[in-house]
Give the backbone structure.
Amino acid sequence: MKSYFRPEIDQMSGYVPGEQPRMANLIKLNTNENPYAPSPRVAEVLAGFDSAGLRRYPDPLATELRDEIAARFGIRRENVIAGNGSDDILTMTFRAFTDANHPAACLEPSYSLYPELAKMQAARMIRIALDPEDFSMPADLLEQAREANLLIITRPNAPTGNSFPLAFMREICANFDGVVLFDEAYADFADDNCMAFATEFDNVIVSRTFSKSYALAGIRLGFAVGARPLIDGLFKLKDSYNLDRLTQLIGRAAFSDQAYLAKCCAEIRENRSRLAAALAKIGFRVVPSQTNFLFAAPPDGDGQNYFRKLRENAVVVRYFPGDITGRFVRITIGTSAENERLLELTRSFYTNAR
Ligand SMILES: Cc1ncc(COP(=O)(O)O)c(C=O)c1O
């Protein structure tokens, strides 16, 4: 049958999101969701919500939410755009800055959505390989990315969990002749971030999400910060009503509760250290993490086998096939009880065999 699609769409396989399994008594540690509920203020907003308001369109500019975000970061509303998840921000960014004559660059391994977004634009994707030993950046990153019009730096990175030196990030912003997008989906779990660069440089965008640290993956909310001309340009190509009324209200309620955010993130960081130490003791290689997950290789370097054995016991983590990534699995930090169960199984798989 004749295809009506553009050739680049025909050639795409499409992004495959992490599995949302429906098993009984499942321990779900595969998509980096928060193990805790969102701020209690979210439940209050939902309980008091008047459904009659839904007959009206939402604010297309998400004005109040952007004002609140701007106030928190000491910037202006004009420096902020909100999206239907940070995936929406990424889509806008690829539409804005890439096409067949404007390549993109990203880290490898990194978030596997980026190459798919490049394909939709018929844009070449330059993949900058991280060091296979410690997943650090190559010193000649700028040289490798030279032809790109959009450089995406996932910081901290996924699925590896590590971060990159801030001084090098500044050097990249100052010297890259194109737009640098810092995907900071996991920045709330990290020691530092690049938010200040978004208004210091005229070529930098920083994106954040409510899906991880705010425990709101279910509503789809993200935002980006940048110099006004960049944000103005993104507004031209966003969907007209990309954030519904409920999402705006829920997002504002969660964002207003920074104390709750800090408490959740502190707990996750503490559990992260504990789990990393316990896995290392069993003989795992654990990449130092600045996120809410661990990238960890079992003693025999067979990530797929470990993934399978956990799954047989209703613990689901994420496995990324590949020469280097295939040695690891990515484990979302769960509640203490969930992490304990994972450890108990892991000890049973590897301790007896040694
Ligand atoms: C690095 C990175 N960026 C962006 C996203 C997308 O997040 P959102 O739920 O805001 O679309 C994810 C989700 O897993 C991610 O890992």
Observations:
- DSSP finds 13 helices and twelve strands in the chain.
- The CA atoms of residues 127 and 343 lie 35 Å apart.
